[in-house]
């Protein structure tokens, strides 16, 4: 029998408890041994609930118990998660976590400890909710050189943008809905400002390119500036707006990564990824294009990914599973030198000036917005774009990156 301790009985923790109980027989069969939840750690009490029997309030009880083989950290946030996880690893216990903030900030150190101790620090649920993308990059795509990872990596914002575009809902109303459905972070600023997606693209890029991406170096822009007017233009152009985390490895060996809203064309495989779903598009030099799709947030999808890790840890209790992780920092290309196309909204009277500055761009107008117009630029570096944009100055109302 393998004993498991779950740290945190919130949305994901209660989901892990539920999945382990609901599918106990098949999970134990697949793990090769019975998996038993010996402890659940939470500050709260849950009187009358089944978890009550295994509930503890003191972490020392878990970390000092030699019978605990696997610690599942689903508390979220960096502290006390980091302290607890480090102690567990140092005590020789495998750790599975859904905590992207923890992995993005301390993953290097925690993975090194796991390697040294011949145990595992697994974090499948930290990216893409229920989509098993980390295992895919670490195991299935090892025959490839990956040169692009682009994903819808945050369920909350994808849900919000979808509702805003299809139902014209207000930002605050849809955010509340996403919170009620258990998608959002404790502090939803992490979702809407793109910080959550930033941590996820940092983790995925580090694995995909075998170079360490520090999330603090990644340009990050959220969805708080996206308006119903932007959505109307997107609809007119047959496009949609999605928050993407994207990174590439370039031919010169440098990389770039960013998180930002993009106006996507219908040919993009990410165009139809709606609601709380996430998808990760990967391009490999042998594989070509592939996309992995599934529920990006929520109790049971996330718990499903965590339990996948628990089973993997159970099968490799004293063997460190080799991953692509490499602590050498990625060399990041300045974003100014990265090329792209841009959608720009301007005041109506600036249309001629815009054509002079940006070339013969097609001016788009919407009947319901008579005071303004918009255009999409040709491909250019971001530096060149910003220089040109400065020439139109205060005539600019909004700008969004474009991806086909
Ligand atoms: N708040 C996150 C999201 C949860 O909405 O995607 C899953 O990481």
From TrEMBL:
Domain called Homoserine dehydrogenase catalytic: residue spans: 132-311
Binding site for L-homoserine: 185
Similarity comment: family membership: Belongs to the homoserine dehydrogenase family.
Alphabetical list of NCBIfam families matching this protein: PRK06349.1
Active site positions: 200
Residues covered by the Aspartate/homoserine dehydrogenase NAD-binding domain: 8-124
The entry's keywords: Amino-acid biosynthesis, Methionine biosynthesis, NADP, Oxidoreductase, Sodium, Threonine biosynthesis
Keyword match Transmembrane helix: no
Top-level taxon in the UniProt lineage: Bacteria
The EC number(s) this enzyme carries: 1.1.1.3
Pathway: Amino-acid biosynthesis; L-threonine biosynthesis; L-threonine from L-aspartate: step 3/5; Amino-acid biosynthesis; L-methionine biosynthesis via de novo pathway; L-homoserine from L-aspartate: step 3/3
Enzyme class: oxidoreductase
Any GO BP: methionine biosynthetic process
Organism for this UniProt entry: Blautia wexlerae
InterPro entries given in the database record: Asp/hSer_DH_NAD-bd (IPR005106), HDH (IPR016204), HDH_cat (IPR001342), HDH_CS (IPR019811), NAD(P)-bd_dom_sf (IPR036291)
Protein name: Homoserine dehydrogenase
Gene that this polypeptide is encoded by: hom
């Amino acid at each position: 029998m393998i004993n498991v301790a779950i740290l945190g009985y919130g949305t994901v923790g209660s989901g892990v408890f539920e999945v382990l109980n609901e599918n106990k027989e098949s999970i134990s069969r697949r793990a090769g041994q019975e998996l038993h939840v010996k402890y659940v750690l939470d500050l709260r009490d849950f009187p009358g609930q089944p978890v009550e029997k295994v509930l503890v309030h003191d972490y020392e009880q878990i970390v000092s118990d030699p019978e605990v083989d696997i610690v599942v950290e689903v508390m979220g946030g960096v502290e006390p998660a980091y302290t607890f996880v480090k102690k567990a690893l140092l005590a020789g216990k495998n750790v599975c976590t859904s905590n992207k903030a923890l992995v993005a900030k301390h993953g290097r150190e925690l993975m090194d400890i796991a390697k040294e101790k011949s145990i595992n620090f697994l974090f499948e649920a930290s990216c893409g909710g229920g989509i098993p993308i980390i295992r895919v990059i670490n195991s299935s795509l090892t025959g490839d050189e990956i040169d692009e990872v682009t994903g819808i990596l945050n369920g909350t914002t994808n849900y919000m943008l979808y509702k805003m575009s299809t139902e014209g809902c207000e930002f605050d109303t849809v955010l509340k809905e996403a919170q009620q459905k258990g998608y959002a972070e404790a502090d939803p600023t992490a979702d809407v400002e793109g910080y959550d997606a930033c941590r996820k693209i940092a983790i995925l890029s580090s694995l995909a390119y075998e170079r360490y991406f520090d999330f603090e170096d990644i340009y990050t822009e959220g969805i708080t500036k996206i308006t119903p007017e932007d959505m109307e233009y997107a609809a007119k152009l047959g496009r949609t707006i999605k928050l993407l985390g994207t990174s590439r490895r370039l031919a010169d060996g440098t990389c770039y990564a960013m998180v930002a809203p993009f106006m996507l064309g219908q040919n993009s495989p990410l165009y139809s990824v709606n609601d709380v779903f996430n998808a990760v598009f990967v391009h490999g030099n042998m594989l070509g294009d592939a996309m992995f799709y599934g529920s990006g947030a929520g109790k049971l999808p996330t718990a499903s990914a965590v339990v996948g890790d628990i089973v993997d840890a159970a099968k490799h209790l004293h063997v460190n599973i080799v991953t692509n992780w490499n602590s050498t920092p990625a060399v990041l290309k300045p974003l100014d030198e990265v090329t792209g196309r841009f959608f720009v909204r301007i005041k109506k009277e600036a249309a001629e000036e815009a054509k002079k500055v940006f070339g013969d761009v097609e001016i788009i107008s919407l009947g319901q917005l008579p005071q303004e117009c918009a255009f999409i630029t040709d491909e250019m570096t971001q530096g060149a774009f910003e220089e040109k944009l400065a020439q139109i100055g205060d005539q600019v109302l909004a700008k969004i990156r474009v991806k086909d």
